[in-house]
Sequence to fold (82 residues):
Amino acid sequence: MVEENINTMADLYKRVLPALRSKKKELHLKNIFSANEKNIWNCLRKKKWNKTGDLTLFDIVSDILNLKEEDFLIFIKQEERR
Fold:
């Protein structure tokens, strides 16, 4: 998936945590208080990254920062139904 001494998904999550926190703050400013780092991560992991082969760290951070609020809300509603 990603190089740069990242061996596990947990390592990758820690590496992109600042971007996840930034997106959470942005979503909170838009009154989407259900947003947290973990569900933003899961949204992208399940809906976007599972369809993609090799991702760079740049791609992952870009996807986090460019996640549309509508896509996130749809994901949350789908997860609530499960």
